[in-house]
Here is the input.
Amino acid sequence: MSIPPSFQDREVAVSRDAASPLRGRREMFLVPDGTIYLDGNSLGALPSAVPARIADTVTREWGQGLIESWNTAGWIDLPRRVGAKIATLVGAGDDDVILTDSTSVALFKAIVAACRLRPDRTVIVMEPSTFPTDGYIATSAARMLGLEVRWCDPSDPVRALRDDVAVLCLTHVDFRTGAMFDLGALTSAAHDVGALMLWDLCHSTGAVPVELTEHDVDLAVGCTYKYLNGGPGSPAFTYVAPQHQAAIDQPLPGWMGHARPFDMERDYAPKEGIGRLASGTPQILALSALDAALDVFDGIDHPTLRAVSVSLTDYFITLVDARLGSQFEVVSPRDAERRGSQVSLAHPEAYGVVQALIERGVIGDFRTPDLSRFGFAPLYVTHVDVFDAVEHLVAVMENREYARPSYSTRNLVT
Ligand SMILES: Cc1ncc(COP(=O)(O)O)c(C=O)c1O
Here is the structure.
């Protein structure tokens, strides 16, 4: 593709930001000065409303309200209230989403529950390049239930679908490459063989609009600390389609999912609806932070979010092509229709490249063996960030900064 010289002018980035429908949203975040943050696909930035909300939850609600706050501050309903906010971001009904555990645990509950809805079937279909936890959890669930995991071809999951499949479980946007599955088409394909569809939305929600109700998705889980900016370790969400809720039999039926938790009955009787996905006491501090964090999405519609995300990732790819040519392989799909809000570049020295960028204030991350990943959270990443990040990348390559001896030992969290 030939790039007009003017495209490589920083003023182009400035004017794109000025015209962006999301201009001004960045001011709702506390991104440190001098930092270009392209790692919101791993840990989202801090929304400025969060510190005060946590302080209030701790000092007033907990400190003064003490145990009363379960009622007076509405703690007991917080998993559902926050779920309703997330529902708007995933195209679901307000009553169909709940916040519970980590994504790994939520996934375990969803996989087992899905298999129990299809008791005459013996197979869980997984995709081998999925995030590792998904495969580990599915394998253990299969072992527990006497089922089998069938690993599908990532380029054609449909070929693994037969009438023995209980559930097809896929990650919507791939954590390594940013490649995005066609959520509607694959959900229909699963239904065609009578299977249920379970989506892991960790790398979509908050950056890639998802329409769960419209596409008749059965179950979904997702984390809240990436594009939803809930903070490190914030709890996961689970969606169950309304038509399945009455029959859902999840494998960790704790007291918080009981219809009458404070009657302390010996036998379990699940709550009506999505509430039965709860197990133990909700994580109120983390949920309060997430509740405040989600307000940054107020008033933004799905097409706007997507348009800005695509504009940022397209711009990054175009500039990398123009300024760095063949030095990097763009492993993310070039077709925006098949790409999430992330671009991954392959290079044999990717670890050093990422570390050298971090030293320059450009934060992306590394995934073994040779990927540098860059996430473009549309609410706080700007086109100027993209332009400047690519300029830094050019300097890292020209000066061979990636080859510093200190980068020969890898950090645990990269
Ligand atoms: C796609 C995907 N699924 C699952 C997980 C696991 O999430 P958790 O650590 O919250 O259990 C992650 C974590 O990054 C992820 O990216």
